[in-house]
Amino acid sequence: MQNILKTVRNLVIHVVVLLLVFVIAVYVFARVLNQATPNTSEAMASATFPLVYMQDDGVSYNCLHGYAYEMDVNYIRDTVTILDASHELDILIDPFDSNVESLSYEVLTLDGSESLENTSVLNLTTNDDGCLEATLTIQNQMLLNQEYILKIQVSAGGREIYFYTRLLLEDGLHLDEYLDFVTGFYAKCVNKTDQDSLGVVVEPDDTTGTSQTLASMDIHDTVDQLMWGSLNPQIAYKPTPSLVDINGTTASFVLNYRISAVDDEGVTVTYNVREFYRLRYTDTRVYLLDFTRTTDQIFNTESTVLESGGINLGITDSDVEYAFDEDKSIVAFVQENELWTYVINGGKLTRVFGFPEEEDVDYRDSYDQNNIKILSVDENGDVWYVVSGYMNRGGHEGENGVAIYHYEASSTTSEELLFVRTMEAYDSLKLDIDDLVYLTDDGQDCYILLENIVYRIDMATGEYEGVITGVNTGCYASSESNRYFSWLSEGERYDSQTLYTIDFETGETWEVTCSDSERIRPLCYMEENLVYGTAMLADIDSSSEGSEVFPMYMLVITSGSGETIKKYTPSGAYVTEVTQSNSLLMLTRVTIADGEYVETTSDTIVSTDTEDSVDYGIATQTDDIKQTEILLRVGTTITDTNPQVINGKFASESGGMTVEISPNTEKEKLYYVYAGGSLDSAWPTAVEAILRADEMVGVVINAEKEYVWERGNTQDEVTISLDKIPDIIKTGIMDVDILEQSLQKDVVDLTGCSLDQVLYFVSEGKAVIAATETGSVIITGYDDYGNLILLNPGEEETYYYGPNDSLALFEAAGNRFISYLNTDL
User: Fold this and answer.
1) Mean pLDDT of all residues in 358-374
2) Distance from C-alpha of 239 to C-alpha of 274, rounded to nearest angstrom
3) Higher pLDDT, 433 or 23
């Protein structure tokens, strides 16, 4: 019995000892493991830069965000600041938590080639709100009605921070009245006051009430709709107006602000609002010429965002950035510039990236000059994504460029893989990044389009090279994933015979050529399949720049490997334009009648792969308060409506490779259309840009940032003195090359523009050569009745021509006009 007890006791002791050894081993192992792999993830660092505001009689406008280094001013076109005859400019600096040590400013020519003044500010005062105030006295004799660049340099926290705005010396522009109007308009809408005064300035028309959505509103909506319908919002923070354009006739402003409203669940939901105003001042009142408003709901998981039918994104635009993994079990999506992932019916919703803070949001981290693009999602929930534009906070605060990240789902951590620093402004950078950025599956190479060059960047070394140059507008296309890229080797939209396609994953390139009697163009991609068209050289009409006709007798759809999937050859017609909408191609077609191309019935090509589009993607639903809501469908019924919500973090020691790519000094000459307060599009010809700007109620700017054309900014009457018209223009010759050689100025072919559109040039003191059936005439002015003042080539006396007769005269000759830029008249 004693032996048995002894044996049991020994067994118990052994078990206890083994348990103690096991516990100690686990503890030591855990300590060692933690020492070997410390937790280096952390939240993104908060914004630290101050903000600078312009002041007009104590009213703040033009909130300027700082850059961490000096920018190339040729890319600066965000705001314009008015300097009156006193040459004094009041500014305000909100330092937040930073210590502002010194302040200086510099006045530069618009292209930055010459510094006109560089002055230190010695007198800084602090107001009751803790903000710094200063008065800049511009000593230099600036020219009236000419734009310059004002660079403000702030030393804060041991760093130099740079702020930029255009500067215009001009009196009598009625800035006070304009600011009163825009701040009053938005406040009346939010507070639902003074409905009658709003009714006077808006313009209901046939489109009024046709689309019930708070996501997009304009001057043609009802007053009730502009007053937010049943939403009943409150101001979360007030806007600071940004003046983006102004002249003696009109002014344009952008307002960014935030509102909040209680939804039907009793949850307070926040919205970012952007408004654009185009105004005209008269002796009696300020007229609203154009108004647009966009509203985007901030994704708030306290509300029910997961519904049986999909992910409820609320009030927002239907153009949502999203991507699924291959098995479609995980979806990544971007809502109001925040990246989220959702494990479908897996109970997990993660905020991967976003500049806005969770609390205490201010103008710095909510600044909207950046964009998120999803590259790919894998079966583990890992996401590769790109953030491009201005970096609001974090390790690259105040820098401009493209950051590539890898989000690891298992650790909920994003790691920076690469940062490409560039001077290219956000608006144009977004156009490039939307077209092409691709990271190979092995993570070895990144391909990116910047200013007409496709670069390959080695992700390990940071070395880069331009692998495709001369990538001109209208001469390239990229696939949905950006894996495949097609371009014309000659870089000519209407005169190319060789089309190349590269597979960035394998590096393989294949080509399509046409005969000497044909020309070829890439049109678009349907997912990963290229669509290109072929036209007969003899059928192409390229007689007028910007109004070319490329009548394609055949469209071809090919796979990524170059295999032909489908050919489309319309009988008795030609295709002149292809517009893509999801898995549908809409074809604009023409026929020949009396030797001219005449538009005929359109046609469509539908992709055979449309099954997913039924169950996945964007849908809409109605709500009594929010009107129209956007729903992201995920292919199945969502059952876990109360998921775990996780905030992703960043690898604090990741420090990805930084590459700096200099501006392309040989980039394509383009004309830029600014509308709604931002860059709308870029065009290779002036006439295309003018037609687009007229449609969008915008302006056209050339590469030198000179105004080429402005909607609505024409004088009521004007007469150009004949001695101010170059002699070569008086000859009436309509050869662009000869005119440019003689004038040493940019000459613009305006064929295809209307008479009203070309009279802008006359209003600006630039005569217009106009074709008639018997030759040409020179338009030298017009009166307030619409009569033109014409000059016949070789003559010295002008004469009047009636408005209706003028229209008929020029229309009979095909509305062929020529004028010029860069005048010193």
Assistant:
1) 89
2) 9
3) 433
Contacts of 316 (CB under 8 A, 6+ apart): 215, 295, 296, 297, 335, 336, 630
Whole-prediction pTM: 0.90
Segment (H or E) for 28: helix 2-36
DSSP H stretches of helix in 165-256: 175-191, 195-201, 223-226
Q: Give the span between the Cα atoms of 640 and 345, in whole angstroms.
A: 5
| pLDDT tens readout for residues 46-85 | 999 999 999 999 999 999 999 999 999 999 999 999 999 8
Structure-block tokens of residue 314: 């609320």
Cα angle at 716 between 714 and 722, to 5 degrees? 85
Contacts of 328-335 with C-beta under 8 Å, sequence gap 24+, read 328/616, 328/634, 328/635, 329/379, 330/377, 330/379, 330/381, 331/377, 331/632, 331/634, 332/374, 332/377, 332/383, 332/385, 333/374, 333/632, 334/372, 334/374, 335/296, 335/297, 335/298, 335/299
Q: Map residue 189 onto helix, strand or coil.
A: helix
Task: State residue 159 phi and psi, 5-degree precision.
Answer: -125, 155
Q: Tabulate helix, strand, coil % of the chain (nearest 5).
A: 15, 45, 40
Alpha helices, DSSP H only, in 556-685?
611-615
DSSP string, 29-61: HHHHHHHHS---EEPPPPP---EEEEEETTEEE
Amino acid at 599: E
- φ, ψ of residue 685 to 5 degrees: the values are -130, 150
**pLDDT per position as a tens digit, 790-800:** 999 999 999 99
CA-CA-CA-CA torsion sign (622, 624, 625, 627)? positive
Please, what is the angle between helix 755-763 and helix 686-696, to 10°? 100
Would you state the structure tokens that stand for residue 138, as one six-digit string? 């511009």
For 810-823, what is each residue's pLDDT tens digit? 999 999 999 998 74
Q: What confidence tier does 141 reach under pLDDT thresholds 50, 70, 90?
A: confident
36 Cβ contact partners less than 8 Å away, ≥ 6 residues apart: none
- The pLDDT, as a whole number, for residue 613 is 61
Please tell me the distance from the alpha carbon of residue 210 to that of residue 217, in angstroms, as a whole number: 11
Cα–Cα distance measured from residue 542 to residue 621, given in angstroms and rounded to the nearest whole number: 47
User: Contact 671/688 with Cβ under 8 angstroms?
Assistant: yes
Hey, which bits of 504-601 come out as E strands?
A: 509-513, 518-526, 529-536, 552-558, 564-568, 574-581, 584-593, 596-599
**Among the listed residues 63, 43, 71, 51, the one whose alpha carbon sits nearest the alpha carbon of residue 401:** 71
Distance CA 345, CA 472 (A): 45
- Report the side by side order of strands in the sheet with 616-623: 306-307, 310-314, 627-634, 616-623
Contact present, 822 and 745 (Cβ < 8 Å) = yes
Pair of tokens at residue 424? 């290219």
Residue 37 has pLDDT above 80, yes or no: no
What confidence tens digit (pLDDT) does each residue in 221-262 have? 999 999 999 999 999 989 999 999 998 889 999 999 999 999
